[in-house]
Amino acid sequence: MNHICATSGNSGPKIRSDCKIALELRNLGGILIDLKSKVEVLYGESIRQQCIEILDYFGIKNALLTIDDSGALPFVLSARLESAIKNLSESEGEYLPVMLEENRYSTSPDIFRFSRLYLPGNNPGMMINAGLHSADGLILDLEDSVAPDRKDEARILVRNALRQVDFKGAERMVRINQGERGLKDLEYVIPHNVNLVLIPKCESTYTVKSIESKILAIKNKCSLVNPVHLMPIIETALGVELAFEIARSSPAVVALAIGLEDLTADLGVPRTEEGKESFYARTRIINAAKAAGIQPIDSVFSDVGDMEALRQNVLSSKALGFEGMGCIHPRQIQVIKNGFAPGPEEIDKSKKIVQAFEDARKKGLGVVALGTKMIDPPVVARAQKTIELAVRLGLLSGNWMIEIPA
Amino acid sequence: MSIPSVINTAGRAVPAEINGIPVIPFKGVGKHKPFGNKYGPHIPSCSDYPEDGNKVVTTLEEALLRCGIKDGMTISTHHHLRDGDLVSNRIFEIASEMGVKDLVWFPSASFPCNDPLIKYLEDGTINRIEGSMNGPLGRFVSEGRMKGTAVLRSHGGRVQAIQDGEVKIDIAVLAAPTADSFGNARGTGGNSGCGVLGYAKADMMYADKVIVVTDNLIEMPCFPMEIEGNYVDYVVVVDKIGIPEKIVSGTTQVTKSPDRLLIAELTAAFLEKSGILKDGVTMQAGAGGTSLAIAVFINEIFKKRGWKSKFGFGGSTKYMVEMLEHGQMGYILDAQAFDLDSVNSIGKNANHIPYPVFNAYNYHSKGNLTSMMDIMILGATEVDLNFNGNVVTHSDGYLLHGIGGWQNCLHARNVILPVPLFRDRIPVIVDEVTTLCGPGELIDVIITERGIAINPLRHDLIDRVRNSGLPVKSINELRDEAEKICGKPSKPVFEDKVVAAIKWVDGTVIDVVRKIDR
To answer: Between chains, do B486 and A73 touch, taking CB under 8 Å as contact?
Structure first.
C-alpha cells in the first residue's frame, strides 16, 4: 500500500454523536490510541477497548489512532474506524455490530407509504432517534445527501445503522447511488435486512432489472428470505416518458416516486410552489403507477419551517392521486400522515364495506354485496387497510364494529 | 486535615462542618425543625442618613469604602442582569485594587460573564463562592482550586440561609435598572430593564449595608418599588449596569429539535391523559426550549377545551404572557422575566405581578407558593433508579449548574421531569446520581423520548394512565434502554477533598461534591 494515513468521520463544535478518526499504520510500537472525548470519564476505557478489538480483527498490530470524539455511539465509532482501515487495506472483512432482533421484520408490497423520512447517510446524529417519529419509512440516503468524497464511509455507517438503530417498525429503506456505485452499495446494505431500495434518477427498465438481479444474487449468497421492494425515483424527462415501463419492469417495484428538484432542472425551468411546470410529469407518473397497480409517491417539500404550506401541498398532492410524500424533517411526518390519512367519508365507506364483508363471511356467502352493488375482494382488502390505518392513527376506535349502533 | 464525615439520611457521606462552620446533615424531607429566632441586622437610625433622602455617592468604590469593606466579608449580588451583568465583577475588581482578601461572594446565581472572577479567586481576593458555578468557574472549583468550599443552595435555600442567619451578608450590592436617590428601585425602565427584581428582597432586608447601583436615576419616587429606600445605605450611578441584549434574550425560543419536541408532546399528552391538566391548574415551567414547547402544547389543550390556568409562576416568557393576554392564564406571579415580551408585560398588565422568591420559595416560612403548584416542569442532568435527581454536576463529576429553584419546586403536587434518555452518549437515567440534589420521593414522573416512568409512590398516576396508550415503562427499563444504546458508563473518580456542599431547602447538607481525580 502507498498510503499509511487515513481519516474518517467528523469533528467540530457543531458535530454531535460522531467522531473523527485518524489512523496511521506503523511498522512497530504496537497500538497507540490518542483519545480526546467528551465522554472520556464515562466511556474512555470502553472506547479504547472497542478500537483495539477492531484493529485486531483487521490484523493491525502497529498503528497510531487519533480519535476526536463528540459522543459517538459504539456503532458509529466502529463504522468510522472500519472506514479508515478500509482506506489503507484491501481487507474484505466486515466488523459487524450485533443486529438488533427488533430490526428483523419484513414489509408487504402494499403497506401505506405516506411518509418516508430521509436521513443523510453520513450523519449519525440524525439516525439515532429517527425511529421514534413514527414515519412509515426511514431512508438511509447514500446518494445526494452524502458528499462525493464521503461516499465510502457513509456505506459503512449506513450498514451499521441498519443493524444497530431501532427502526421501530418503520419500513427500512436505503437510497443507493446511481450506476456502478449503486450496485456496489447494495453489497453493503442488502445483507442487513433492507425492506426497500430507492433507485435515484431512474430512466430505464434496465437499471431496475440490474438492481433486481444484483439484489437476488446477494440474497442467494447470504440466504436471505425477506423481500426487498424497489421504489424507482423519476427525476428526468426521459424517466417521465418511460414511467409506465419502469413501473412494471419488475414485481419488486411497489411504488414510483417523483423527484422534482432534479426534474425541473432537467426541464430547464425553476421549481415553483404551485408546480405548474411539473404538472404533466406528476400526473403522468400517477397514471403510470396506478396503471401498473403500484403506489405513486410525491417529492419532498423543502420548506421545513412552513407547516401550513406543507399541509396545503399534501392536500393537493393527495387530490392528484399521490399516496405519499418524502420528508426531510421529522416534524413534517405528522402533517403528511394526517394529510394522506383517510378522511371521515373514506372511513365511513370503508366501515360499510368491511361490515358487509363480515356479514357475508358469517353467513357463509362467497360474494360480498353492499346494497345492490357487488364488492370485489381487492376493494374489501383496501377498505380493511383503510380501517386498520384509521385505527392506527387514532381516527377510529379498535372496537368500532361493536360500537356501531344496531 | 480531614474533617470527620457522617452519613446523612439519604445515605451520603457529608462532613460535619463546611468552611469551619458546623452543618446539619440532611434528615429527610420535612424532618428538620428549625428553632430560635430569625437573624436581625444592626438597627439603623435616621440620624445617620441625609434628611433630604439623597444617598447618592460618586462611585461604587466610595460606597464600598463607606460600607467598611474589609477582609472576610460576605458580599451579595442578585442575577437579574444575567449574562449581561457589569456590576458583580466590578466589586471584586475594586476589592482587589484595595487589597481586600478572603471575601465570600454570595450571588443568587452566576453566569459566563462572571468567569473573569477566577483571577480574584486565584489572587486571594475571593475565598469562595456560595452560589451557582458553571462553565470555567465550575471547572475551577471541581479541580479543587478554590480556597474555601463552595456552598450551593436553591433560590429558596439562599433566602432561608439569609433569614436564618446561616449567611450573614455584610454588603449587598443590588443592581437596579431604575432607582431614585433615596434607594427605591425597580426592575423596569432605563436601558437595562430586566423586568422584576424578585431575588433581591432578602438581601435588602437582612444585609448590614445595602448599595443600590443604577444607570437610570429618576426623581423620587421610583414607583412601584421592589427595593425600598429605607433599607438602602448608598446609591451609586454608573454609565451602564448591564449589556441589554445579554440581560434578556430578545425572544425565548421553542426548541426546534425534533426529539425534544417529541418529549414535549409526550409530556402534554401525559398531563392531559392523567387528568393532571384541568381547568384552573396552577403551573410553572422554565424558559428552556423543551419547557416552552410544553407550554405551547398545554396552551393548545387549554384552547381546545376552553380551560385556563388560575396562575402561573415565572420565570415568565412570551408564551406565558400570550396565555395571560388571551385568557388561558389568570395571573403571572413573577420572580424574573426571561424575554422582552415578559419585561414589557410587567407594568402594562395588572395581572402580571412581581412576586419575590423570598415569598415564593422560602421553606422556613409560614407556607410558600411551591406546594400550591399543580404542575411543575423541571429538568435534570441525571435521574436514578430511585427517582433521585441531580442538577449540579455533569456525569463526569464536574460542577455544571446551579440548583436554581429546582429543589424548591420539587414540593409541587406533580413534579414532571421531561428529559432525554441520553445526551449524545451520556445516559440521563443512571443507577445512582453522581450528586444528590433532590430526593426521589418528591419526583413523580420522568418523561423521555423513549418512554415515561412514573414513581411507584404515585400509584394514582399509574392507575390513571394504565389504558391511555402512553409508553409507560419502569425506570429500570429506561435505564436498560439507555445502557443498551450507550453502553454501561463508568463512574468518575473523586478524591476525598470536598469542593462544594449541596444544601437542601431547610439548610441541611444533602450531599457534597468532591474534587475530581485527574
So the answer is: yes
Residue B200 lies in a domain: yes
pLDDT in tens, A273-303: 888 999 999 999 999 999 999 999 999 998 8
- Whether A73 and chain B come into contact, CB under 8 Å, resolves to yes
Distant-in-sequence, close-in-space partners of A253: CB < 8 Å, separation ≥ 6: A208, A229, A230, A231, A232, A246, A247, A292, A294
Note the pLDDT tens digit of each residue in B144-171.
999 999 999 999 999 999 999 999 999 9
* Domain shared by B201 and B222, yes or no: yes
Rounded to whole angstroms, the Cα distance separating A334 from B442 reads 35
pLDDT score of A330: 95
Specify if B19 maps to a domain.
Answer: no
- Do B273 and B352 lie in one domain? The reply is yes
Chain A residues near residue B258 by CB distance under 8 angstroms: 129, 133, 329-331
Chain A CB contacts of B487 under 8 Å are: 43, 46, 74
Residue B499 inside a domain? The answer is no
Which residue in chain B has the smallest CA separation from A165? B485
The ipTM is: 0.90
Residue A147 CA to its chain's centroid (Å):
18
Nearest to A352 by CA among A330, A335, A368, A334: A368
List of chain B residues whose C-beta atoms are within 8 Å of the C-beta of residue A44: 490
Is residue B513 helix, strand or coil?
A: strand
List the 129-168 stretch of A: residues with Cβ below 8 A of B. 129, 132-133
Residues B215-248: tens digit of each pLDDT: 999 999 999 999 999 999 999 999 999 999 998 8
CB contact under 8 Å between B487 and A46, yes or no, is yes
* A72 contacts in chain B (CB < 8 Å): 425
CB contact under 8 A, B424 and A330: no
Residue A404 has pLDDT above 70, yes or no: no
CA angle A333–A254–A217, rounded 5-degree value: 115
pLDDT band for position A1 (cuts 50, 70, 90):
very low
Q: What is the largest CA-CA distance in chain A?
A: 86
Is there a single domain that holds both residue B237 and residue B270?
no
| Mean confidence (pLDDT) of chain B | 95
Does B258 sit within 8 Å of A329, measured CB to CB?
A: yes
Q: In the 8-state DSSP scheme, what is residue B17? A: E
Instruction: Check CB contact of B514 with chain A, cutoff 8 Å.
Output: no
B238 and B269 in a common domain: no
CA distance A180 to chain B (A): 34
Domain that residue B487 falls in: 258-492
CB contact under 8 A, B485 and A128: yes
Q: Using the beta-carbon criterion (under 8 Å), do A71 and B485 form an inter-chain contact?
A: no
Domains of chain A (ranges plus CATH)? 5-88 (3.30.230.10), 101-340 (3.20.20.60), 344-403 (no CATH)
Reply yes or no on whether the pLDDT at A2 is more than 70.
no
DSSP output for A332-350: HHHHHHHHHSPPHHHHHHH
Average pLDDT over residues A179-191: 97
Q: Is B145 on the interface with A (CB under 8 A)?
A: no
B262·A38 Cβ contact <8 A: no
Residue from the list A17, A74, A132 with its beta carbon closest to the beta carbon of B424: A17
pLDDT at A382 over 50: yes
Mean pLDDT rounded to a whole number for chain A: 93
Are B323 and B238 found together in one domain?
A: no
Is residue B1 predicted with pLDDT exceeding 60?
A: no
Could you tell me which of B276, B267, B266, B268 has the C-alpha nearest to residue B460?
B276
Q: What is the pTM of this model?
A: 0.91
